[in-house]
Each structure stands twice: as C-alpha cells, then as structure tokens.
Amino acid sequence: MNKSKERVDIIIVGSGIISMICVRYCIMQKLSFKVLALDKFVAKGNRHLSITRTTEETLRKLKLWNKLDQKLYGYFNSIKILGDDGKVKLFFDNLKRSKGPMSWVVEERLLHNYLLESVGEDRQFFKTLKIVENTPSGVDLEDQDGEIYSSNLLLITESLDCIKGEPACLAQKKRRYGQLALVGDLETESYHNNIAMKWFLNGDILALLPKSEPNKYSVVFSFTTRSSVDLSKSNLNLLPLELLSEQVGEVLSFENTLSYELFEKWRPAIHYNSLIYLGGAAFSFHPLAGQGLNFSIKNLQKLFAGIDKLNSLDAPDRKQKYLLQINKSSVKDATKLIAFINLIKLFFKLNKSKLKVPHNYLLRLFNKSKFLKNLAVKVAS
Fold first, then answer.
1. pLDDT over 90 for what percent of the chain?
2. How far apart are CA 141 and CA 170, in angstroms?
3. What pLDDT shows up at residue 1?
4. 3 state SS of 240
C-alpha cells in the first residue's frame, strides 16, 4: 500500500462539467486539489444544455464563458407553450424586458472542451475507489493499486458503482418516470427567430431549443415508453410531424439522435462528515424544466462561497456546521424543484373533457398575468 505524500484541500471525483467547474473554483480560491476520474470524458451524444442567465454569470466570473464563443451557441428570448391541439397556451415574450437572452443553448462538447482548455487535464484515473476513512476532519481514499489519497473534503460529482464504502444512509433513491428521452438535431423549413417551443401532448413533452443556425433546433422529446418502438429505425416518426409543421414548416431532417430512460433521482442528504455529493451524484430531474445543470451550478456557487469564508478546511467543527447548512439548503431546493416539475406534468396531463374548461381557464389567466409570467421567468433563471 502506497501512502500519498500530501493531503490536499479537496478531492474531486468525476470527469464531467460539474467536476471541471469545481476545479475552476479551487484554482480561483487557491485551494489544493486532486481530480480522480473513472475515464476520459466522453460527451453524451449531441446533448445540448440550457444555460440560464444566472449560470452564464457564474461561468463568466469563473472565466469559463468567452463572449467571442457565443456565436457558436443558440439562445432564446421567448418561449411558446403549446397544447396537444397545437395551439399556443402560454407565451413568454422576454425580448422587450430583457438585456440578454432568457437562456443560452450550448452543445455539451463545446462547453466541456472550453473547460478543459481553461483548467487542463491533470487527472488521476482509477478503476475502483474505496472510501477507507470519512471523519469530520477529512477523507482517505484507496484505488485499485493501493494508492491512498487524502483530503479535507471529498466532492463526488457522478454516481459511480465502482466507488465502495459510501454511507448507506445517503443512498440515492430512484423513481422511473416511465418515459424515454429522445434527443437529436432538427432542421426545419422555417427560421426559428430565437423562440423556444414546448408541446404538452397527453403526458409526452416535446421541446425545441433554437441552435445558432437560423433553422435548426435541439430536440428533447420525453415520451411514454412503448415496448413496440424500435428507436433505431423510427426516430423521426416518433415526433408529431403534423403539429410540428404548423409551427416550423416542413421538417427537413432529424439526425444525431440518442435515447435513454428518464429517472428521478435524489438523496435524502448530500453530506456525511467530509463527503458531499454534487451534480448528478446528488439529484437528477426530468428535462421538462431544463434546470439540471443550472441547479447543480447554483449549489456549487453556494458551497464554494462558504468555503471561501471559512478561510481554511482544517477546522472540523466550523466545516461541519457549514456543510450541514449546505445540505439542508440543497435538499430543500431539490424537493421544491421535483415537486414543481411533477405538478406541471400532472397539470398538462389532466387536460380531459371534465377538466378541460377549468384547465383552459387557468392557462388563459396565467397567460394574461404579466406578474405571474415575470415571476416564472425569474424563478427559472
């Protein structure tokens, strides 16, 4: 067994965007760190990420957002919410009130490559990892070769089965949504004019996010699992083409598709002694709200703001008091977001004959209220 020669402030486990943002925070706050990754980062297909203005501001402060690169990103100033009849139920037009986009639409590969250029790829790779010791003072980890890594704080940013010794009381809970997500690149006849669109189709949800090209969208379609569907052959036919054509004209192509099952994942707590879960290792949401990455970055911002105020991670009592606050705040916010997502899904799913009149009345009421719509945009940012 080879003992590590030094103890670092923070060990970061993971190789994704959240891991790299943790690295950037460590560099800016002059914290010593080590990154342990299972493998080199591989972008998940052609996934696009919705970056809110608050998140963009955080990335800019971390010097991870280059305005010169913004021409590569899509964005939207307005959102149309459509029902299963293709009619616009809600319209969030933020163009007149906003100094910038409501949200950027960034390809995951582009953002991660920029992060790698900024923070480098100095990482240690492992096959298995065991938590040997986890106390209020710090953490010791051991890899498959017997190498020991020590730190004052351990941040796990990905759910990995090859990590042993994690606290059973913090086990991640999982609930199937009973839906698959289908993502891909859609090219259409009409220009998108930087307007995002979202359809609620009897429980299925289709979102089109404008890309940098004027007639291309990033598609996120969450639909009820159908055992007879062959995703490798019928991706285009899964989309409601007739309804799409009413809004975007003829569909010219639907390419680079990827499908995966949707889960709701959460932990009852994200902190135990000197371990804290972040990103997908802590929570995973339905893509309905597009808040997964943005929520994670908000948690990172709060975590490192507190670490900066602590001045040192060597004081166990002060560290534990602060981590308990972060835990309480993060779990509370995640619970609210999960409840909000499920409430919206249920509201649009209940569009049945007996409920159609009150359902449509509430939508019209919301659509006419500038206050409610401004509040919704603010919360989503």
1. 44
2. 18
3. 46
4. coil
SS3 296: helix
Given a contact cutoff of 8 angstroms between Cβ atoms, the answer to whether 152 and 186 are in contact is no
- Residues constituting the chain: 381
Query: In one letter, which amino acid is 313?
Result: L
CA distance 331 to 336: 9
With beta carbons less than 8 A apart as the criterion, state whether 221 and 238 touch. Answer: yes
Whether residue 118 is predicted with pLDDT greater than 90 in this model: the reply is: no
Report the candidate in 343, 373, 379, 346 with the shortest Cα–Cα distance to residue 91: 373
Whether 251 has a pLDDT exceeding 80, the answer reads: yes
Structure tokens at 16: 């994704």
What is the average per-residue pLDDT within 364-377? 72
- Please say whether the beta carbons of 180 and 262 come within 8 A: yes
Amino acid type, 43: A
pLDDT band at 6 (very low <50, low <70, confident <90, very high): confident
Convert the pLDDT of each residue in 298-316 to its tens digit.
999 999 998 888 877 778 8
Tokens (6 digits) for 47: 């996934």
Tally Cβ neighbours within 10 Å of residue 108: 18
- Which positions ≥6 away from 240 have C-beta within 8 Å? 199, 201, 206
Rounded to 5°, the CA angle 269-181-42 comes to: 75
DSSP class of 295 = H
How far is residue 59 from each of residues 19, 110, 287, 305, measured CA to CA in Å? Answer: 14, 14, 21, 14
- Comparing CA positions, the residue from 319, 280, 318, 286 lying closest to residue 300 is 280
- Residue 55, CB-side half-sphere exposure with 13 Å CA sphere: 28
- Listed in sequence order, the residues at least 6 apart from 338 whose beta carbon sits closer than 8 Å to its beta carbon are 264, 266, 283, 285
